[in-house]
Write a structure and sequence with these properties.
Blueprint: H1 3-31, H2 34-55, H3 61-83, H4 106-114, H5 121-133, H6 137-144, H7 148-164, H8 177-196, H9 207-223, H10 228-241, H11 267-281, H12 288-301, H13 310-323, H14 327-341, H15 343-356, H16 361-374, H17 378-391, H18 395-407, H19 434-440, H20 454-467, H21 481-494, H22 496-504, H23 509-519
Amino acid sequence: MTDHAEEVARRLPALMQEGNAQVVASLARQLRDVELAQDCTQDAWLKAFETWPRQGIPDNPLAWILRVAHRSARDALRHRQVVLAAQPRLQPQTQPQSAPAFAEDDQLALLFACCHPSLNPVAQVGMALRSLCGLSTDEIARAFVEAPTATKRRLSRASAKIRDCGIPIAVPGPDKFNQRLDAVLASIYLTFNEGYVATESKTYMRPRLCQRAIELAQRLWGLLPAEPEVGGLLALMTLHHARRDGRIDAQGEPVALEDQDRSLWHRQEIEVGQTLLAQALGQGQPGAYQVQAAIAALHAQAPDAEHTDWPQIAALYGVLLRHIHTPVVELNAAVALGMSAGPQVGLEWLARLKRQGDAVPYLVDAARADLLRRAGQLPQAQAATLEALRTADNPFTRHFLHKKLSELVLPGERRRRKRLPELEQVDILGTGAWEPIDALFPRPKGRGRPPRPARELLQGIAWVLLNGAPWRAFPRALGPWRTAYHRYRVWERDGRLLRAFEILAPHSTHAATTLALLRGLQADSFREPLGR
């Protein structure tokens, strides 16, 4: 690798994550065609992959990307004009400007275009996710719980409508703000949430995405200082983002709110959030974002977990339910009531939520486990944690729940292995697919003790995943747990683990379930019901 290639490999992913939305928004403003802007920007990044390792990263990389995307768009429009010469449909304004440049409110302008009232509400969300978050069509499809082809058609129709109906990619006048404000605020908060707990990322958080959402809200607050909900949303995101350094440990895994080191919180940002909240509430029009910001402020100003003002938080959740009565808000309210009035009261509410089946199952079970632990009902807390593990999809969430499970030790219990439910003593992965598995994991020949057959380790790996068990509980009869964990990590990295369970899935229900756990097929994302 050359020096340039090493620098490109190190910096380019961050540049794409940070600058893609800015380039798409700027180009879309010039083209009046969101889909074409996205395609040309993608072409420009591919050019960067080819060119920068040889020539080095330019002084202003985003300007370079914008120029290349601009040239690609110009070529595409020329081709379109030739093809459609007999029936011209391109307006003069569709031609890109001769000197592409970034404008301060490009992303805000694109957001208002995505939230135009003539677009389907689901399409508005999808367009915002793709344009501002940079999520792929497959990722958005998982969020909508639909086929990627359906999502692609929906987004293409929305992009075509913006282009063909002449929807301006610009910040509208004051008389049209109210038509789109709710959708714009929801999209900004959705962008922030994707950064706060990333659904498709190797890291638990994407701080740059959170910062981008905050910057959009700041510009919107500057345009609409008389809209208290804009200030409320900005305060809410600022207060949450101020805790970013305390929310993960040295290994990058999530830390519960009560366990966070509060000295790592950014106190200056908390003060800014509290000031913004006071300004918004001072206008006398309380709304959902302001109430949520008030809850976040109470958490932020508590010196430690024991001094959290849970009665006031529970009361605020009662107010929030009058604004937005969703299963997630109701789940938060139940937890807050349990912390305020006693675990049993919260558990009764959570039991009703579980029976209704509207809330995300593993969030309800995780909340139940926490209140059961506080009530001293450790066996029931263990069972609830195991239920949460069986349906949780986010790997960081699963690691967090594993840690919580390992902490739920009964009096006199020395090993977790004895408390874990055992699967039937049969070949849980079926018997009709071992030949291709043996070919996938050949045993090395030579002197010395040969390693344990892969089929036995796969049995144990499936047992651990299906039980939501810590690795120390790996069945002793199948070998040392450290060896199993090492093999698990190696096979996970090189893709053989997923391939093995793809082979086994048609032959065993247990294997199919294990494959689903490995793939994270559950559609709902983790949204921190306990206010982590």
